[in-house]
Amino acid sequence: MCTSVIYQAGDSYFGRNLDLEVSLGQQVVITPRDMVLNFRELPTLEHHYAIIGMAIVRDNYPLYFDGINEKGVGIAGLNFDGPAHYFPVQEGKKNIASFELVPYILAQASSVAEAKELLTNANIANINFSEKMHAAPLHWIVADKTGASITVESTTAGLNVYDNPVGVLTNNPQFPDQLVNLSNYQSVSPADPQNTLAPDTTLPVYSRGFGSRFLPGGMDSESRFVKAAFAKMHAPVGNNEVENITNYFHILQSVEQQKGLDEVGPNTYEYTIYSDGSNLSKGIFYYRTYDNNQINAVDMHKENLASTTLITYPINDQQKIEYQN
């Protein structure tokens, strides 16, 4: 289970929480412009936009969970078990394996509009990366530095590309149903509510934050969708980069999953393994992990983006405590 958000504060910030019960050996991976990208059913790309994001590398291929490109486009794949449906390879279609969609979009799109164009006549093909690594059931959020975003879902009805007016994505149900559910919380507010029940009667308000009393607080994906949308829509704009990325991580932290609260098997719990956020204009990739609250950063533009080999950074997962005495 995961949560992804696009947040505008002068620049736009895009990233996600990755919630699983086990770490997969992810690292920060930069795919430079001249590294050859091979696709199973599509033409090879020998030159493309540079990409940075969180991935695992297998057979020198970056399997991105999420990432951004040098043009300010970001994409994240989130669990969509149940509704997700991939199809056999179809003649006359752009057949894209699910594990290829992140590099396919980021290698070529400089905006959400261009990402939509790339998805025209596309088919998310039921192709496994290998015998041991089967296609994960996913849907995707794509965003750009203007703040525009779309949701991409492949179901039994086919490939659906939805405009995403809230800039948030979690997991099930299908995206249109998430928006319908969001309408149940239209009256939630950071301010105290108006007394429309008995307007001529003075009723005591026994707590601060009373306007948000009916926000859902569960770990489930519908609850996280609502909570993340509320936190994002009311997040302040900072005065500088540090304040803005700090605000961004606080948005993600509002739906963080702590160990011990979401049991997915006997004595096995899902938790937020990492959170990341990128400045889509500057190409800086920020992240923090469950075990390390410090915000770490990798600036893609400080690397040789014209090279032909992957550039990787191991995750900094050791907690740092600054002692003041």
Task: Write up what this structure looks like.
The protein is of the alpha+beta class and 325 residues long. The chain has one domain (2-313): Penicillin V Acylase, Chain A (4-Layer Sandwich), CATH 3.60.60. It is 14% helix and 33% strand. The protein has helices at 101-106, 112-118, 175-182, 221-233, 241-253, and strands spanning 2-9, 11-20, 27-31, 51-58, 61-69, 73-79, 94-97, 122-125, 138-144, 149-155, 158-163, 168-169, 263-265, 268-269, 271-279, 284-289, 292-299, 311-313. An eight-stranded antiparallel sheet has the order 11-10-9-6-5-4-3-18. It has a six-stranded antiparallel sheet with strand order 12-1-2-15-16-17, with helices on one face. The protein has a two-stranded parallel sheet with strand order 7-8. It is globular and about 70 Å long. The model has no long low-confidence stretch (mean pLDDT 96).
Keywords:
325 residues; alpha+beta; Penicillin V Acylase, Chain A; 6-stranded antiparallel beta sheet; 14% helix; lipid metabolism; Ntn_hydrolases_N; EC 3.5.1.24
Give me the oligomer status.
single chain
Number of domains: 1
CATH C-level class is: Alpha Beta
Helix content: 10-25%
> What percent of residues are in strands?
25-35%
Assign the structural class, choosing from mainly alpha, mainly beta, alpha/beta, alpha+beta, or little secondary structure. Answer: alpha+beta
| Number of beta strands | 18
